[in-house]
Write a structure and sequence with these properties.
Number of helices: 13
Low-confidence stretches: 235-244
Number of strands: 3
Distance between the termini: 47 Å
Mean pLDDT: 87
Helix content: 55-70%
Strand content: under 5%
Radius of gyration: 23 Å
Order of helices and strands: HHHHHHHHHHEHHEEH
Length: 264
């Protein structure tokens, strides 16, 4: 193992363990370490001896890289690190001791796939895990439960899950998932209503703070009138003239949109 790699690894871990971390420095050390690891061939090839110290170092570097990517909002960087970590978590799980961050990061990857509507990949990743682990591990059970709530259309349970994440790092993808759900509900509201009361809009979109609803409405270009109603800026369709209760229509459209999302 190259001394340069060990020294950089020590600097990286020292910086990462600080509160708060300097993410720019962490990213700088990660870039240098990735270059060294790629030059030395950190993943053993068949027929060559396994250096467990190198495996441990490389795995730790990629785990910090994955967590750092989430901290700075780099989804593609996170996915690259997870792709590299799979070799350590599954191919070499009998060669090195289990990482305390293994299931936290696997669960984060599941949540990432769910938040980005990549459901086929979500289920492919689940197949790598035992049924017992899926049911009992808090990091895995959380995204699995969310997927079940989405299948049921139980959006209220999804929003409640935001306050019960197994790790603060899960909040990043939870925010993406909740934003996607709100956008879907809002689109159905616009199709089913000419206008909606301020308070009712907040209830349907699961906003607890008025300021958040107002900001969301601005992004959707909703007009707030003096009668405390939001008016939607869109062309109304013939659905307005049909004798269908508004609440029923919105619920039907939400269910239809959700089923389309699952099929895609």
């Amino acid at each position: 193992m190259r001394k340069e790699a060990v020294d950089l690894y020590q600097k990286l871990t020292n910086e990462w363990n600080k509160k708060p971390q300097n993410f720019d420095k962490c990213l700088e050390y990660l870039t240098q370490l990735k270059i060294i690891l790629s030059e030395t061939g950190f993943i053993p090839t068949p027929g060559n001896p396994i250096d467990k110290r190198e495996l441990h170092l490389a795995r730790d570097v990629f785990e910090i890289g994955a967590q750092c990517s989430i901290a700075v909002g780099d989804i593609h960087g996170f996915e690259r690190y997870i792709s590299q970590l799979k070799s350590f978590y599954f191919d070499f799980q009998n060669e090195i001791s289990e990482s305390p961050f293994k299931y936290q990061l696997i669960g984060l990857n599941l949540l990432c796939l769910l938040a980005r509507n990549r459901l086929s990949e979500f289920h492919t990743e689940l197949e790598l895990l035992s049924p017992h682990l899926i049911q009992t591990n808090i990091y895995i059970r959380h995204p699995v439960s969310l997927e079940q709530y989405l299948m049921e259309g139980s959006y209220n349970k999804v929003f409640l899950s935001k306050g019960n994440v197994p790790s603060p790092s899960y909040n990043y993808f939870m925010d993406i998932l909740l934003k996607t759900i709100r956008e879907e509900i809002a689109s159905c509201m616009e199709s089913g209503y000419k206008k909606i009361m301020f308070r009712e809009a907040g209830h349907m979109l699961y906003f607890k703070k008025e300021e958040e609803l107002i900001e969301f409405a601005k992004e959707r270009k909703w007009v707030m009138a003096s009668d405390n109603y939001f008016y939607f800026q869109q062309k109304q369709t013939d659905l307005e003239n049909q004798n269908i209760p508004s609440n029923e229509l919105v619920m039907q459209m939400i269910e239809y949109a959700r089923e389309l999302e699952i099929i895609v």
